[in-house]
Please model this.
Amino acid sequence: MAKAVLTSKSEDFPKWYQDVVAKAELADNGPVRGTMVIRPYGYAIWERMQAELDRRIKDAGAQNAYFPLFIPESYLKREAEHVEGFSPELAVVTHAGGKQLEEAVVVRPTSETIINSFFSKWVQSHRDLPLLINQWANVVRWELRPRVFLRTTEFLWQEGHTAHATQDDARAYSLRILHEVYEDFAVNVMALPVLVGRKTERERFAGADATYTLEGMMGDGKALQMGTSHELGQNFAKAFDITFQSTSGTSEHAWQTSWGVSTRLVGALIMGHGDDAGLRVPPALAPIQAVVVLVRDEEGAGERAAALAAELRGAGIRVQLDDRVETGFGRRAVEWELKGVPVRIEVGPRDLAAGTVTLVRRDVAAEKATVPLDGLGPRVVDVLADIQAALFQQALDRRESGTVDAATIEEARQAAQAGFARVPWDRIRDAEVDLAADALTVRCLQRADGGIPDSSADPDLTATVAKAY
Amino acid sequence: MAKAVLTSKSEDFPKWYQDVVAKAELADNGPVRGTMVIRPYGYAIWERMQAELDRRIKDAGAQNAYFPLFIPESYLKREAEHVEGFSPELAVVTHAGGKQLEEAVVVRPTSETIINSFFSKWVQSHRDLPLLINQWANVVRWELRPRVFLRTTEFLWQEGHTAHATQDDARAYSLRILHEVYEDFAVNVMALPVLVGRKTERERFAGADATYTLEGMMGDGKALQMGTSHELGQNFAKAFDITFQSTSGTSEHAWQTSWGVSTRLVGALIMGHGDDAGLRVPPALAPIQAVVVLVRDEEGAGERAAALAAELRGAGIRVQLDDRVETGFGRRAVEWELKGVPVRIEVGPRDLAAGTVTLVRRDVAAEKATVPLDGLGPRVVDVLADIQAALFQQALDRRESGTVDAATIEEARQAAQAGFARVPWDRIRDAEVDLAADALTVRCLQRADGGIPDSSADPDLTATVAKAY
Model:
């Protein structure tokens, strides 16, 4: 029924994406090029992402803090690779308070420079380490080809910044965040399988020694980088003079990490699970897990629907009651499909008289079931668990069927036109730069056992080649 | 014991304030003038404020959303009073992505203009009203005399923006936020009594028809504006063309409100409750309500302390375990006093052997009690409730003893040098502007019964005159 509302995915995937963003009321474009307005439903999804990520970040021992939006231009220049990477994207404040500023300030594109300038004050002794800091903030990168949620001039994210006494400790923490925070969130909350691997030197973060990444496959077979965790080595510690007195009394530079995920994850949600009827939000993420839709307010059905919503809330389910009977039922059903609410419970006078309601699963197109009112709470809890598992399985199946083993760079080029090509890294290492001509990149390197390589120079690595957002 | 660490309040209040901010590790000054770094403990307090406020805001029916940081300069100019009020404080981005921008963009000082430009798209019919939106964001106002938390170039806040079908509905909502969200939070969470009243025309928000305010008295007798809620009338609706089709089919301009509180509340906490030993955080707000301090890890005391912390957590208390025995006990005790943790529980081998611990209340200087381990959870819960009430009472007593009834503007001038002067509005109305010469302002107008006037022209109003932050 909702199909007419959206462009179909297979017909025009980018147009379908824009349609979902607009019709599910997730976001609007802002007036300044590349900016976005995150609308209440889109923001509620982001708040759920924040809550799940924040809990995991705190469990990993990091504390939240907040650093300034404005960074002196000179700070950016202290780490050579870093400034080279970010210079083209900077927004610069030259005037403030009615005057020209003596030193222009940049709007943070990321906060390594300003945060590390404070780490150098706070870190004195090995006792101050590890220092584990996270911040939730907006950042600005001027984008030439903006696309809502995926690549916006301003976006929201969390950025973690840590300092450690040893390289091993920094590496272990960087990987801990990758697996325990990001991969766990992607798989168990977003129901999206991810390739977890190492970026090539060409693709790593500007200023890092190593970048680890999570790559998801979207509905059109392209890759989306869903999060990264960096080993910064001592690069910023040297640029910002972060030294500590070691247990043996020597002065040492700290070893560091940084890591982040952003509102681009909302894009991953749309493109990872959406279908021709709109968004499909996995229950573990959904701000509304079940919507109770009152068909008509007759014979006390309104009160019964409200009581039912309260009962489901009591069962620990995030529930919204839709009693807007002045709006047509069909239109409301389409709206909840567009918004991808996992379970819809339709409550009408006729059903109630029979002691039943209609339960509609969003993951399986048009599957409706008449179910007894009795025991509805536990039933919905079970259905939500089913949907969570089903969405993950569908995404995994798509990725597996969309992934091809390639033996040569030519085969990889071909296969990666509509999916992921897995190719021995040795075969393409020297030709990595040439992939760009076909809009392809190496998304990540993995060991034969799926593990993360210690170095891109390790033997027997597999490269995943794909088009990417 | 901590007294030597800080400048005393009575000796130099501003210096004491800076000392508390630094020594309790709440914040640092940023490198760009007027900016601040909110350190983990300061941010944990802000997160608690956010959680308490956010819940109340959602209970009042508003939904969170997010609007861009960057606003086209032309938007600011659409509402005449608004641009006049904010122009001197704007930070302007003139260059981005390596080029000069065609239209300069301002960094939001507040978001009425950009949010209302979207309201004009989203509001079509009376069915779309009320539209109740809140956003958590950073804003920038270039400050000439910055002071950490109180007046910073960048600060964090929430800003609510709503549109209603009638003036009455807008007014009622503006007052609902003032009382049910802000006043309730100030009194019941922050344990700070507030005067709730109406701003004079001179003091109201640039672009508002009426501004309602909460004013707290700080430790030095000065006022701090802790939050404001504005009736915007139809000013922005006319400037941004927010119209709706009414039930009778006519096209009408919406009636609007906006309202906000900010990280300045951390300043209110410091100056409202702090003493010569540091911060005192009310238990309902405190990110750490009780700290279990292990004196020495001997005879299994470490394990017992950890178990005790877990037991207290089980009783619903926010607990931190301090087992840093390599740091001197006295130094740690001073640190927790500086941070204002309401209850400190000292656990040593000798106490444990006797089945007791030492319980120290932060609100009463140096009150220590030896209490049995048995039933410690319920006891701490009771003590926390006592401390919450005691801190409120102390703040209320200070305000009452610091408030003087004045009959003339001369008396008011005198009395307001070190506290609040309450004076009939009729006596000073025409001389309001002259108060500035003594750095005094009318903080708010109230009716004889303490209620909020419908207009500053109402008879028998009382003005509160004070110095203010």
Summary: The mean pLDDT of chain B is 96. The radius of gyration of chain B is 25 Å.
